[in-house]
Recover the amino acids of this structure.
């Protein structure tokens, strides 16, 4: 759990990046309608949560910066017995004042007046440019005299790149729960079951262990379905001799995990499956070993492509010289995506990959990223030896950059062929 002091320290740090004589506004997430008068489960906006730790909707954080000092204001939903009877208890301003380390707390109906007052003699308005129009309209209604509008989202995203010890602990907890789900599926008799049965097993284990949300919709993709990268229909029956690509991770206390394993339905890999799986696993381990402060993500990408091309040449999947394959990007048909992404409050964390000068950001201690090389060979690809067609393999782990190298946070989730087969 992250203590209230950490949120205050984050606000202190954010203010250093804000211009003097500015007003900054962050809105909470909003309830989204699922159908008619029912809503999707509410999930707080990640940037708002990162700066406040507050989980309720209909809330606003305002930061007013003078030359050097600043004041923080939290506006929240007014307590109402009828509303609470239908939608659940609210914290209320009185209790919020006892808990949150902000300077002033009000109900949301006071926001517009206090926002208008705060704008007096200010030079800049900072907010998330990705806001929906209705919220931007509220801000601009009173900020007509302020010419400088600054997007606050990249500033927070840069902060979110480096995880604190508390954040790393929560992510480790999320990965530990995800491990239980993946291992349970490896042990399960999967023949003649449907993909959605495995998905339900995943979600049961997540919730049983206190992770009430997926970090993303689980991908349970058997056979050729694995070659659709964002496959989520999860409705195919599982057959002997096939592989299942399972990309599933829970969200625990708002932080994500993101793990992919590719396992056999019958419990044992065939020879062609072993050939492809061993190649992808070898590449993944090689790339992970490169991780350390100062390395560029593009270096990891280039190396992963080089190793996969060489492996596919040996297996007869790609023909011709290495240079020609690379120049014509023939390998992209089988490995179309990046080697990995940032991970944290969002499974694809909204952190920058380049700085304000468009220069690539090197890895740094405290960053967490996924490493996920893959091969996708469609069942109708006649350019590939028949024994490999219809196989899709991805192996993905969550990696913390340390002072001198890396820590594979998900190393306890088995991925060696024999270890997976022995779990059956």
């Amino acid at each position: 759990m992250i203590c209230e002091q950490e949120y205050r320290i984050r606000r202190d740090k954010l203010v250093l990046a804000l211009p003097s004589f500015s007003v900054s506004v962050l809105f909470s997430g909003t309830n989204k309608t699922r159908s008619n008068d029912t809503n999707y489960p509410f999930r707080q906006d990640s940037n708002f949560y990162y700066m406040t730790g507050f989980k309720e909707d209909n809330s606003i954080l305002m930061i007013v910066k003078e030359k050097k000092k600043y004041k923080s204001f939290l506006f929240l939903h007014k307590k109402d017995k009828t509303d609470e009877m239908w939608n659940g208890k609210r914290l209320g301003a009185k209790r919020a004042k006892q808990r949150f380390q902000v300077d002033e707390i009000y109900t949301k109906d006071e926001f517009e007046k206090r926002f208008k007052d705060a704008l007096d003699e200010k030079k800049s308005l900072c907010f998330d440019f990705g806001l929906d129009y209705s919220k931007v309209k509220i801000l601009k209604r009173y900020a007509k005299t302020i010419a400088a509008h600054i997007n606050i989202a990249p500033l927070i995203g840069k902060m979110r790149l480096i995880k604190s010890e508390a954040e790393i602990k929560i992510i480790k907890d999320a990965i530990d729960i995800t491990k239980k789900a993946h291992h349970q599926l490896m042990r399960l008799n999967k023949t003649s079951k449907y993909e959605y049965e495995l998905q339900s097993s995943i979600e049961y284990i997540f919730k049983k262990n206190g992770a009430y949300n997926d970090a993303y919709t689980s991908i349970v993709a058997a056979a050729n379905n694995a070659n659709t990268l964002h496959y989520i229909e999860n409705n195919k029956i599982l057959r002997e001799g096939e592989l299942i690509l399972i990309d599933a991770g829970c969200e625990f206390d708002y932080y994500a995990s993101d793990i992919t394993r590719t396992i056999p339905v019958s419990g044992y890999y065939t020879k062609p499956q072993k050939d492809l799986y061993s190649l992808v696993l070898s590449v993944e381990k090689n790339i992970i070993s490169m991780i350390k402060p100062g390395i560029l993500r593009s270096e990891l990408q280039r190396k992963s492509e080089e190793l996969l091309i060489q492996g596919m040449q040996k297996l007869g999947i790609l023909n011709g010289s290495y240079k020609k394959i690379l120049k014509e990007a023939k390998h992209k048909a089988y490995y179309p995506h990046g080697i990995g992404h940032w991970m944290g409050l969002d499974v694809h964390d909204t952190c920058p990959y380049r700085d304000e000068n468009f220069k690539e950001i090197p890895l740094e201690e405290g960053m967490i990223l996924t490493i996920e090389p893959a091969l996708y060979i469609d069942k109708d690809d006649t350019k590939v030896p028949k024994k490999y067609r219809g196989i899709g393999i991805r192996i993905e782990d969550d990696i913390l950059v340390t002072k001198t190298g890396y820590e594979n946070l998900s190393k306890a989730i088995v991925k060696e062929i024999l270890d997976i087969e022995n779990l059956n």
The radius of gyration is 24 Å. The chain has two domains: 4-160, 165-422. DSSP finds 13 helices and 19 strands in the chain.
